[in-house]
What does this fold into?
Amino acid sequence: MNIRASIDELAARLDSAAVTRTACAQVFGEQDVPVDDAYVVQAALVARRLDRGERLAGAKLGFTSRAKALQMGVSDVIIGRLTSGMAVAEGDEVDLGRFIHPRAEPEVAFRMAVDIEPGGWRGNPAEAVDAVAPAVEIIDSRYRDFRFSLADVVADNTSAAAFVVGAWRPLSLPLHNRGVLLEIDDRLAEAGSTAAILGDPMRAVSTAIRLAGRYGIALAAGTVLMAGAATSAVALRPGQAVTATVSGLGRVRFSAGHATE
It folds into this structure.
């Protein structure tokens, strides 16, 4: 398969699945496709959102949990792009009609402190961010049954769909082992620790800078870096109230609205 001759076609297929909220077959499936080629498709896919007027809002990491990485048979984390159309204000209602099969993951978010062009940062990673917050990512694979290969999920922009960030606070607390709760309708759905995020969420900063440099992703000051999931994802249904709490960082909330016709 000549992937470079098929970039536009594959990006269009994934974009159409997201826009029409209709799951599609895996774009690669059993084919042995280099991950670097899948990132080329990801860039073309995100470019379609930018052409419709959205702006880059940051980046997100996936497979930061060692258990999840082993389950998927991968040896490195993956990176995706966040856009302004994915941002949800804390406390707002999210219309689930925007998605195919949405799931929520509690995370830690960082705010970029400086502009980092691909390959252009040689400083201390801790100096690249200036604030931290509790967050929830809504993931939504565009593939049928939420099943995919590594190349498939990279091409699909790492299942990025929406994100909600709580109140920012200075980076003054250690983050390596803080309790994380995900509650649905005030009932515990998942519990975990920030240690599930690469052992320490701060490691997500240096990892994101490395991967962004490799795949040509600019990280702009003021944008968001989602560090990765601290627990398993939970499927969302209309009418639910979702709360994520990170010990010492506070909580973030949103509600899942009824799907529109």
